[in-house]
C-alpha cells in the first residue's frame, strides 16, 4: 500500500530546501540571476547576478565609480499616496523645448538613426525614413514613416513618465514636467514592441532584452534620476547597485541635460 504524502512530509521538504539555500548562500551562487538576465547572460556584464546579501551590503560593496556613487546618492522613497498619474500632466507631446523649429520626436529620430531621409521643404525636420540600430534588442530596424509603419520605431522615455510621477514629478510645476517629458537625455528611439513590453517599469522590473546594453541603460536611468532629483524604491536601487558592480567600466552619460537633440 502506497504511503500518502502528508503535511509532515511537506514541512520536512520545505525545511530541507531552506537548509540547502542557507548552505550555498555564503558561496554567492547565482540562484537569483535567472529572472531578468536569463541563464544565457549569467556571467556577462550587465546580467545583474543577484545575491542573498542585504541592500546595505550590496550598497557597501559597490566599486568607487561615478556610476556606483550616483546610485548611492539617489534618495530612497517609502510608499506614499500620490494623485493618479495622467499623461496630460506632462504637457504637450513632443514640444519644441529646444526651440530649433523641430518637434522632439523628429529630433530624436534624426539623432538616433542613420541614413535619414527628410521630407522636402521641412528644413530637415520631418523624418521620412532611416535605419535604427535598436539599443534594446540589438536588431536593425528600417524605419519608414506611414500610418501602419511608424510604430516600428518608438521614442521611449528611459525613465517612464509614470515612474517619474511616483518618484517626485507629481510635485513639479507643469513647465518642469513638460521639459522632463521632452528631455533628450531621457529619450531613445527604440524597437516598438520592446518599448511596449517595458511599459512604465523601473529597472528592477524590466531591463532590455539585449544583455550587452543593460549597463548603459541602467547608468542612463541613474543619471536622469540624479539630474532631475527623482527618487528610487529600495528594490530599484538594489538593481542599480548590482548593475554598477557588474559594470565597473560603465560611465554615466555626459550632460548637460536639456541639450538640443540634434
What can you see in these coordinates?
Helix 3 packs across helix 8 and helix 3 runs antiparallel to helix 9 (234-246). The chain is α+β, with helices and mostly antiparallel strands and 262 residues long. The protein starts with 6 loop residues before the first helix and ends in a 16-residue tail after the last helix. It has one domain (7-246). The model is unreliable at 20-43 (pLDDT under 50). It has helices at residues 7-24, 55-60, 66-73, 104-112, 161-166, 174-181, 192-198, 214-228, 234-246; strands spanning 114-118, 127-133, 140-144, 153-157, 187-191. It has nine helices and five strands, in the order H-H-H-H-E-E-E-E-H-H-E-H-H-H. The radius of gyration is 22 Å and the shape is globular.
**Amino- and carboxy-terminal Cα gap:** 77 Å
Side by side, the strands of the main sheet go: 1-2-3
Helix content: 25-40%
Shape: globular
- Return the structural class: alpha+beta
Would you count the extended β strands for me? Answer: 5
Tell me the strand percentage band.
Answer: 5-15%
Oligomer: single chain
Give the ordered list of helices and strands. HHHHEEEEHHEHHH
Total discrete domains: 1
Amino acid at each position: 500500500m502506497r504511503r500518502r504524502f502528508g503535511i509532515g512530509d511537506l514541512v520536512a521538504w520545505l525545511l530541507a530546501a531552506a537548509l540547502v539555500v542557507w548552505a550555498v548562500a555564503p558561496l554567492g551562487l547565482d540562484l537569483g540571476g535567472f529572472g531578468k538576465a536569463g541563464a544565457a547572460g549569467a556571467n556577462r556584464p550587465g546580467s545583474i547576478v543577484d545575491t542573498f546579501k542585504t541592500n546595505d551590503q550590496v550598497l557597501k560593496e559597490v566599486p568607487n565609480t561615478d556610476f556606483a556613487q550616483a546610485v548611492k546618492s539617489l534618495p530612497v522613497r517609502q510608499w506614499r499616496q500620490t494623485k493618479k498619474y495622467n499623461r496630460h500632466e506632462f504637457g504637450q507631446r513632443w514640444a519644441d523645448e529646444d526651440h530649433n523649429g523641430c518637434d522632439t520626436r523628429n529630433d530624436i529620430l534624426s539623432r538616433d538613426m542613420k541614413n535619414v531621409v527628410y521630407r522636402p521643404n521641412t528644413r530637415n525636420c520631418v523624418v521620412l525614413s532611416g535605419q535604427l540600430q535598436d539599443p534594446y534588442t540589438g536588431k536593425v530596424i528600417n524605419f519608414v514613416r506611414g500610418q501602419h509603419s511608424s510604430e516600428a520605431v518608438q521614442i521611449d522615455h528611459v525613465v517612464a513618465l509614470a515612474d517619474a510621477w511616483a518618484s517626485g514629478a507629481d510635485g513639479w510645476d507643469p513647465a518642469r514636467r513638460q521639459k522632463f517629458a521632452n528631455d533628450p537625455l531621457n529619450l531613445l528611439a527604440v524597437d516598438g514592441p520592446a518599448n511596449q513590453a517595458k511599459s512604465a517599469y523601473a529597472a528592477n522590473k524590466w531591463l532590455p532584452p539585449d544583455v550587452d546594453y543593460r549597463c548603459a541603460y541602467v547608468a542612463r536611468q541613474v543619471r536622469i534620476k540624479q539630474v532631475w532629483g527623482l527618487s528610487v524604491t529600495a528594490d530599484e536601487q538594489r538593481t542599480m547597485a548590482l548593475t554598477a558592480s557588474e559594470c565597473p567600466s560603465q560611465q554615466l552619460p555626459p550632460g548637460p541635460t536639456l541639450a538640443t537633440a540634434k
